[in-house]
Protein 1
Amino acid sequence: MITKIVLTGGPCAGKTTTNERVEEFFNKLGYAVFTLPEAPTLFIKAGADFLTQDRNLYFEIHKSMLRFLLQMEESFYEIAEATGKPGLIVNDRGAMDISAYMDPADWQRLLHETGHTEEELMSRYKAVFHLCTSAKGAPNSYTLSNNSARMEETLAEAIAVDDNLIKAWEKHPNLHLIQSEEFVKDKIDNVLLGIARELDIHNSVKDLIL
């Protein structure tokens, strides 16, 4: 059985560190874990200009990114099946994240041109874990230094992006909001426990987490 989840959240939410811990923890439990890289970061590092004033170029970048993301998911799903193990695919951002960075009319146009619906895109994932930006609960921890692709310079910008991402996923029937904690470990543990519940192994592994 292959379980697909999304790990999303605003800037400086701790996704990278959490992804590393998720991979380590569930690999030790015998799962074939695949943590897919964040598509926007790959696109930025490859030269895509997300700050362009050319509206058509901006649209085409996001349309291509959606197609890239979905194909990446399908490819790793096939790889996970081939392992013969129970699989866990963790998306560093999922398909609906793209809508948080687009004008609503352009997003609807993108859906039309690619032949998708919001309901279909959300149904690809069993659960969505939104890690709230540290700008909300731990503002002294907010930094630009740990992600060269991060563009939100102020706390207000980070909070606005975080809110938009929550709105993008709010109709998903299994959305988990992971609030910022004083200690990063507590935040990560909440994600591990949540994933364990989705895999129906919570009771047997909770003592390993807490």
Protein 2
Amino acid sequence: MNKLIITQKDQVICTALAEGQKILQLSLEPVRRKAALNSIYIGRVQNIKKNINSAFIDIGEGITGYYSLSDNPRHLHADGTRTTDLKQGDEILVQVARDAVKTKALVLTGRLSFTGRLAVLTAGKNGIGFSSKISDQAFKKRIRERLSQEDMEGFGLIIRTNAKDADEETLMEEIYSLKGEYERIIQKAPFRNCCSLLYQGPASFLAGVRDSYSSQLEEIITDEPNLYEQIAAYLEKEQPEDKRKLRLYQDPLLSLKSLYNLDRALEDAVSRKVWLKSGGYLVVEPTEALVVIDVNTGKYSEKKTLRETILKINLEAAEEIGRQLRLRNLSGIILIDFIDMAEEADRKALLSYLEEVVKKDPIKTTVVEMTKLNLVELTRKKIHKPLHEQLAALRGREEEAKENWV
């Protein structure tokens, strides 16, 4: 069972997902954040780059986003019209689909989507998909049959993991609530100015509450009365079944941050070296193009054969790498240099185990292959900034931000 810890220092909110005393995920965000993920704006086309088939869209407050013309063949204009042509100065509806990462602008999309606890609804698409963590075929068939009777033309749906524990009517109510939100935005857009914010994406800590697996969430804890009230209001409206899980922490002798050792977790999450229980260690190197992780035997001293030693360290490393990807929010292309194994059976066992580990990650992570150089390739979907960039953005440079939390 997991606990969601939400605390604040100065103007920074820290959200942590803990399993026992082990931190699985961490995120930091300013209290007043510009261009939150999933927010919808009326953007103005600043310029169009035909050589990369994309446009750059101004959404106000000095923020410009990247808009792929390949991924967005049709454009929803503020006046309600839809076209396949786009020119400089056009005002269109866009949504923040991905945070800015390093030197890259944030990514915008014209396919407006709305995320709920049980489902994600996307306008301009058709079809029904299910979370990869839902394996119940009878459930999928029943939901498909029910949705085929509803008016969902022009809307795509993804049924989220939490839906498998909810009743059918609750799921349908949420889907129509999401659809209603889309319709309200379309109706008010023609009467709003350019760069207006039409829909505010939820704060990171509320998204953390929404996206937690209900069956695995034991408690939501905060020591901030203001945050407690916001979470309580959200739960009352969106997740009344989880209201009992919310607790206001009030111990004057031991802070919530200290109780869960968040300062140490933050230290670990930006450290280059990660020690394993066996004495081996990882070296984690995020670069501009990809993330490289090296596995080393380190201080391992058990009296086993060389083959057994290498396999044991690699399996332990695979488990820890799964946690580190979530903890640090590393994404994109990831290369892992495991300790070389001579036996094909051992290599297959390692890849199989790694696949099981990354299935626990709520963000889609795929084990691609082991190359001829014995490097394991992974991909992890890019959504939020990695933790080290969140730190750098909040305090100007990594060390200043880290010291403010420790």
Protein 3
Amino acid sequence: MKIYHKGFNYSQDGPGNRLVYHMQGCNFKCKWCSNYDSIPFDSPDAFEMTPDEILNEVMRSKMIFFSGGGVTFTGGEPTVQFEELKKTLILLKENGISTCIENNGSSPRLKELSDYIDFLIMDLKIVDEKKHMYYTGASNSRTLENIRYFSKIGRQLHLRIPMINGINDDPHEFIDFLKPLNYKNLTLEVLKYHEYGKEKWGDKYEIKNGFVSDEQFNDFRNELIKSGIQIADY
């Protein structure tokens, strides 16, 4: 498994204190990505760990998983290393470790991981497919399909919208998609645009005037709340 960064984080990558593995490689190329260096599948800064090595490291860290913590795999995009990820998740679950993945929902095999994930986080970046293609370099059809599937079966699902001025700041586009879903175990988090990764892009960074005002942000959230969506405050 190729990993470009690992470390502990509290409550931002799933519940509790978690050991977070940032995996190398992503099939999306979001123009605002804060982890630009994680997009290539090969990087001189990435390092290899086997599922057994990860398990050993996790078990040594088990005492630090307080407040319902555990292990989170993020990216890049963790599902592009599917077989290694699946093996690792199975090992962790067999040893009683809480598991979480943060992903873009594009894997056609995501359903296979359901039994081995305690907390599933998925990005819902843009609903319109053409716009999604332009800003991420990939279709969102599989993402929307996976969201519908996990909602239908009542699986815990935490969606994240990275709100960006002029790109995905119309709440009604999201409401039209989300309205038919089963809200029972679905929560939504809206994240304000930031430029934490801009320096990594250099001259290639294309987003202009992406920041949203507090008023925009609150109006966006309030429209979603009116529709019945449970908004998470993290």
Protein 4
Amino acid sequence: MLEVSKILRLRVLLSFLQPDESCTVTGISRTLDVTKQTISRIIMELEQEGLIDRSDVRHPKLTDVGYQVAQMYEEKISVSMNHLMYEGVSIDNAKHDAYFWALYNSENTMEVIRSSEKRVRVKYELRNQRKFNGLFLSQMLEDGEYTLPFIMYRENIKNGSNISILDDLFEHPCILIMKDKKGIIQLRSTRSIHHVEHGNDIIHCKITHIQYYDNGVFINAEKSGDSFAIPLDVLNFINMGKGMSQVFHGTVCCKMSWESRENQKGEATAFFTILL
């Protein structure tokens, strides 16, 4: 019951974003199908919170703070609705649940949803592109950070798998940072334990150096602490699947150097592949 009351308060607040004659007790009552007494009580509560200005009792309006709060919730609801509908939820259920998400999701959760919603929008716009490069993709992405799953593939299948052991030497997911139509993928290395092949010895490996392939040469990835930066432009994408099940695989060949606590060193090649 408390949740229903909070959602009703939110719907009343959002009603004032519509600059028309319906922003009255009677108009909002009619629109939301709630008694005028209930609407009047909610508006007075919103006034006490500094969100509504009732200096003109017949025509209450949002305060500056109220306008900012209402816009914030409107954006959260819009993003949540899009995300739910992309996942196959009906529009009625998506609209209903979006109010709960807007009220109760943490800002960290909303950032993940925003990132997902942006990716889905881009995937829809690219749905008819069979192949494209990272430069083409960067022109479509908005500024901000995107969390992206990735896989390190080995050059050849070994022991029935084409996933490289280098995959365990990085934190998942990676981060794509977009700014002014330029994309940088940040990979953060981490130490991992591996058994030495043909033996029982254990080594503690960590990536120390990465080179990515671009226009016929391998280029050193910029390093900052444990993080490596790879330009989005050097990846080549292929569109796999159809409809909402489409997955875009963006790949670049990388040479990676590693070392261990046991003073062992090595180098391996892998295909760094992000999934969009």
